[in-house]
Amino acid sequence: MDIKALQIEARSAVKKAQNTNDLEEVRVVYLGRKNGKVITLLRSLKDMSLTERRQVGPKANTLRHELEELIKRRGNELQEKNAAMNVDVTRPGDKVRVGHLHPLTQIEREVRDIFTSLNFSVLEGPEIESDYYNFDALNIPPNHPARDMWDTFWLKQPSIKKDKSLLRTHTSPMQIRYMETHKPPFQIIVPGRVFRYEATDAHHEVNFYQVEGLMVGEHVTLANFKYIVETFLQQLFDGDVQFRFRPSYFPFVEPGIEVDIKLPKEHHRQGGTWLEVMGAGMVHRNIFNAVRYDPREVQGFAFGMGLDRLAMIKYNIPDIRLFYSGDLRFVRQF
Ligand code: FA5
User: Fold this and answer.
1) Is 198 in the pocket of ligand 1 (CB under 6 A)?
2) Does the beta carbon of 151 sit less than 6 angstroms from any atom of ligand 1?
3) What is the pLDDT of residue 160?
4) Positive or negative: CA dihedral 185, 191, 194, 200
5) pLDDT mean across residues, the chain
6) DSSP conformation class of 230
7) Are strands 165-167 and 153-154 parallel, antiparallel or unpaired?
8) Pair 301, 225: CB distance under 8 Å
9) Mapping DSSP to helix (H, G, I), strand (E, B) and coil, where does residue 151 land?
């Protein structure tokens, strides 16, 4: 057999070996001391003529070294493959990293739970609202100075549509939407995202969350409001809360009030000072008129609180912008 043919045959045999046993067989066939084809060839050199030996000798030697090298490399390859397939089923698995809820989601769920336990229903509403629901129906007609209280993102409008669209500035439009389609008595909360065209700072974002509350019935009074809100805030802040109810103005309530709380200094960054947590009041008769309720037959209270602000107080967070920064070092602390 000429050397070239032997080389081709041996190379392909090495390549084909699928495990270390195959490879050992190949080694014996070509490099085995007894009858290995290459070794036999090398042994036969001594019987050749000098010229023949000069020709065949170096080639046979090169082939031997090449095969030794190829077999070694293929051996390593097969070992690596083997290691990859060799699974130790008793080894403890790699820990899967589980994500977790954002602090705003956590507090929203807590708020939902507390109000559900007080027999409130929870619903959500559209983030894109019409001028009518966000303002007009809430007793804030165009050009009313109260519109200045809510800086607004207006949306581009197809000219055929009369009612302008905007990103809702509060969750109060859901008061109207709900009352249009339901009859009292009822009590609801509406958590959701709202938007204001404002400069941001540690306490103001352009995008934040509110929770609206509305309870309407024949005899619903501010006393009911006081009980519900105090119970809610005491549960949210684990008991130790002082309350202050101040007169205020919102066009959709009469009278309007604002609720402040004071928490113990020891547990809260913002403890020891009065903090405003919500706007509220008795639903204005014009709102009942807008939804075709008779204001002589029903009355109720409404409130709207900033969820971000509550979360900041509860978790001692100094800057509202941290909620939206996407920084995992912040989120993982909760
Ligand atoms: C309102 O939005 C009224 N709709 C609340 C209301 C509902 C009053 C029902 C009466 C009856 P106000 O603009 O004050 O009110 O916002 C309510 C709460 O949202 C504030 O107390 C504050 O906690 C939060 N808030 C207001 N602006 C921002 C802002 N830029 N960033 C974060 N939180 C804000």
Assistant:
1) yes
2) no
3) 67
4) positive
5) 93
6) H
7) antiparallel
8) yes
9) coil
Could you give the CA distance from residue 330 to residue 334 in angstroms, rounded to a whole number?
8
Grade residue 149 by pLDDT with cuts at 50, 70 and 90: confident
Better-predicted residue by pLDDT, 82 or 114 = 114
**Distance, CA 301 to ligand 1 centroid (Å)?**
16
**CB of residue 205 inside a 6 A radius of ligand 1:** yes
CATH topology of domain 103-331: BirA Bifunctional Protein; domain 2 (3.30.930)
Q: Work out the angle at residue 145's Cα, subtended by the Cα atoms of residues 141 and 149, and round it to the nearest 5 degrees.
A: 100
Q: How many CB atoms are closer than 10 A to CB 1? A: 8
189's tokens: 């909360």
Would you say 164 and 131 are in contact if contact means Cβ atoms under 8 Å apart? yes
DSSP state of 184: S
- Please state the pTM of the whole predicted model: 0.74
Ligand 1 geometric centre to CA of 216 (Å): 21
User: Both tokens of residue 184?
Assistant: 């009292």
* Active site residues per annotation: 150, 170, 196, 210, 253, 302
Q: Is the CB of 279 under 6 A from ligand 1?
A: yes
pLDDT tens-place string over residues 212-243:
999 999 999 999 999 999 999 999 999 889 99
Percentage of the chain modeled with pLDDT above 70 = 99
Cite the residue boundaries of each domain of the chain with CATH code 3.30.930.10.
Answer: 103-331
Task: Give how far Cα 24 sits from Cα of 11, 20, 36, 71, 270, Å.
Answer: 14, 6, 12, 9, 77
Q: What is the pLDDT of residue 166?
A: 94
Task: Tell me the residue length of the chain.
Answer: 334
Pairwise pLDDT comparison (327 vs 179), residue with the higher score? 179
* pLDDT confidence band for 1 (50 / 70 / 90): low
HSE-up of residue 95 (Cα within 13 Å, Cβ side): 3
